[in-house]
# Entry
Amino acid sequence: MRTAALASALWATYALARPQVAGEFFTGTVGNTTIAGDNHGPDANGKYVIYGENIRANFIPYGASISNLFLNDTSGVERDIVGGFDNASYYGVDKQHPHFGGVPGRYANRIKNSSFVIDGETYNILGNENITPEHPNGLDTLHGGPGGWDWRNWTLVAHTHNSITFSLTDPDGDQGFPGEVVSYVTYTLGNMTWDLRMVAIATTKVTPIMLSSHTYWNLDGFANNETATALNHSLWMPYAGQRIDTDNILIPTGDILANQPGSVNDFWSSPKQLGANFSNPAIVGNCGYNCTGYDTAYVNNRQAPYDWRNEGPVARLRSAWSGIQLDVYTDQDAFQVYSCGGQNGSVTLKGTQGLHGVEDRPRFIEQYGCVVLEVEDYIDGINQPEWGRDKKQIFGPGDDPFVLQASYKFSLNDTEVGLLGEGSG
Ligand SMILES: *[C@@H]1O[C@H](CO)[C@@H](O)[C@H](O)[C@H]1NC(C)=O
Ligand SMILES: *[C@@H]1O[C@H](CO)[C@@H](O)[C@H](O)[C@H]1NC(C)=O
Ligand SMILES: *[C@@H]1O[C@H](CO)[C@@H](O)[C@H](O)[C@H]1NC(C)=O
Ligand SMILES: *[C@@H]1O[C@H](CO)[C@@H](O)[C@H](O)[C@H]1NC(C)=O
Ligand SMILES: *[C@@H]1O[C@H](CO)[C@@H](O)[C@H](O)[C@H]1NC(C)=O
Ligand SMILES: *[C@@H]1O[C@H](CO)[C@@H](O)[C@H](O)[C@H]1NC(C)=O
Ligand SMILES: *[C@@H]1O[C@H](CO)[C@@H](O)[C@H](O)[C@H]1NC(C)=O
Ligand SMILES: *[C@@H]1O[C@H](CO)[C@@H](O)[C@H](O)[C@H]1NC(C)=O
Ligand SMILES: *[C@@H]1O[C@H](CO)[C@@H](O)[C@H](O)[C@H]1NC(C)=O
Ligand SMILES: *[C@@H]1O[C@H](CO)[C@@H](O)[C@H](O)[C@H]1NC(C)=O
Ligand SMILES: *[C@@H]1O[C@H](CO)[C@@H](O)[C@H](O)[C@H]1NC(C)=O
Ligand SMILES: *[C@@H]1O[C@H](CO)[C@@H](O)[C@H](O)[C@H]1NC(C)=O
# Structure
């Protein structure tokens, strides 16, 4: 039985997650309370549409995922700039499960040895990565386990013309994690902005919580007629002077490394194309064993206290081809960049993407065809107590909720030739 205090805490959590927009209408149920509002159902593909000024997006309950994000480029052509599938029903059918645009949870990224210790007690959770004959359950846990939060249909609790809120109740013991967690995720579109607000509350036991958004970007809508990759996108991360060191299966070693100026991981001293250093041997193995590219958690080194909405951005991704520029603002202290080296042409583009009618361009996401940007906390911080991340990653009943906020601000920037290393094209 939930106590009145707990119900009120849940309500407060929901209130924190929900958009603060005057004149909004809600529809849905929270606890016992039914909130009446205008009811926009899903479209024929099972997707919910919201829109802001010069921006439109589709979301689905599966993983509380973004499935489409439309903007007009500098030529006035509409581009769908995120990876996803054509319809909501296919997300649970596709065997590859690329974590397409969803919310990895209850603990994003990797957990070493699928275990952690809280208050002296060791918890073993389900593994799902690096499966070998000796380790049939995997050597580690990625994105919350084989049935993590982005494998589930969330509950739609609110939907207005410019915002949508999903909720998930993750039961005690699911994937091996202790205690129930209740989460609300709200997405809001503004004037060429996409805001994310995630809250999660541990209602019964002390447990790790670390959420993220796992969106695949191609700012050309996969329609760049000169390249199928995103390697010509430029990336700038002005606060990313350090990164979390990982071993050859991408598990943190405990070390935090400096990103030396001019090195393959230097995206802080100036913008650089994602592919700028791909001919340097140092890039091989940079994202795990024999892997070329990036699958790396950079540290957002900002001097506290900081105003995350106005200081920053922590990252700028830009394609000179479409002119679309994305500035990422967030309250989170780490930022994972994955350059899609694992893509191998097995994921079909959506009908809203790609070059139609060009026969020599397959309608698939090719290797390096995208980049995943994940706002989050220090990966596997629960197994690195010396990093001091407990207040950001360990939560119990009565604690403040886990909170993640981010604002993705889009603009058009058709600068042809960029700064040093950004190249042309
Ligand atoms: C929910 O409804 C039940 C049964 O009507 C009631 O006992 C309980 O107090 C309600 N809870 C809240 C939070 O209103
Ligand atoms: C792109 O421009 C067209 C034509 O002006 C307009 O109808 C459409 O809504 C725009 N797309 C977005 C996402 O704003
Ligand atoms: C949903 O999309 C998938 C992948 O594009 C496609 O194979 C399938 O036929 C679609 N299903 C429906 C009902 O449209
Ligand atoms: C999740 O929702 C999709 C439709 O959006 C549906 O096809 C699928 O069966 C649902 N899965 C579960 C486990 O309820
Ligand atoms: C491509 O990647 C998918 C997903 O990881 C995998 O299932 C498939 O076997 C790969 N195909 C090839 C040819 O490597
Ligand atoms: C890894 O987890 C297993 C239980 O699944 C445990 O027996 C073992 O001691 C752990 N190893 C390390 C190095 O923590
Ligand atoms: C949107 O932002 C642009 C510039 O950033 C501004 O010129 C425009 O007036 C804004 N539109 C609305 C409806 O606020
Ligand atoms: C790509 O498209 C642009 C604009 O439509 C055109 O100017 C250019 O010639 C095309 N490039 C190739 C290689 O087809
Ligand atoms: C390393 O990867 C390359 C392709 O990227 C492949 O050709 C080569 O066989 C791999 N080497 C090993 C030792 O796995
Ligand atoms: C546009 O991109 C160029 C090249 O990276 C950069 O120097 C400039 O600051 C950007 N403009 C804006 C307004 O962000
Ligand atoms: C990486 O690329 C940048 C931009 O072209 C260049 O300045 C730098 O020297 C390169 N670093 C390495 C290690 O190749
Ligand atoms: C990608 O950028 C390089 C410079 O780094 C440039 O030489 C090349 O033409 C660009 N290619 C495309 C397709 O934009």
Observations:
- DSSP finds two helices and 27 strands in the chain.
- The pocket of 2-acetamido-2-deoxy-beta-D-glucopyranose (ligand 6) is lined by residues 113, 115, 124 (CB under 6 Å).
